[in-house]
Structures are given as C-alpha cells and as structure tokens.
Amino acid sequence: MSVQRGHVPPAQNGNVDDLVPTGLVARVLNRHLRLPASWDDAERREFVDEAAQQVALRVAELADDWADRAVTEWGRRHWRLPDCESQAELVREARRSALVAVLCDVLPDVPVADFFEVGLTGVNGN
Asked: What's the whole-model pTM score?
C-alpha cells in the first residue's frame, strides 16, 4: 500500500484502539446508556464493550475522512503540505471532533460537556 504525503492512512489496517481508545468510549457509554435493570454486570459489560467497538469504528472512519479534508484544506490555505507537527495536530483535532460528533449521534440526550467530564480532552492520538 502506498501512502501519499498528506494522506492519513485508513483505520482498517490498524488497531482501532490506536486511533480511538475504546475503554474511554466504554466509560462514556456505561455512564449514559440506560440498560435493562434485569441485566447482570457481565451482560452490561458485554453490551457496552460491543457498542464501544462499533462507536470506535464509526469514529475512526469519520476521523480518517475529516483528517484528510483538514490536511487538504491546510495545504490550500498555505500553498504547501503541512509539516509533521501541523499534520499531527490536524489529525488529533479530527479525532476529537469525530468522537464528539459520533457520541452526540449515539447519545443525543447527553450534553456535550458531559463527554469531556470523562476525559475526552485526552483523545489526541498519542
């Protein structure tokens, strides 16, 4: 697979946890999902873990697209490709934005500020 400079490789070839920490997503979902009271802890954990994986995949796909767009737009504004630091920051911002956007879609009744209470500000791709 050849990678163009300025192109962010898709998440499909790597571990989703490398792009989006599924443990963090699971904490957000566990905190805000209303699950049946009859479920035991193992059932809840299994459901939340599977949902977190699905959310993480959606986030990774969206972040990949948004990062590509951000790098392209940066290049158009500056008439050159971004340096490594600039590109890394564009990718981190795309990941954070994609995570918040997907969580807002999955948990529409939760205020955006609540997502940051569980540590979304730490989502930076490091």
From this structure: 0.75
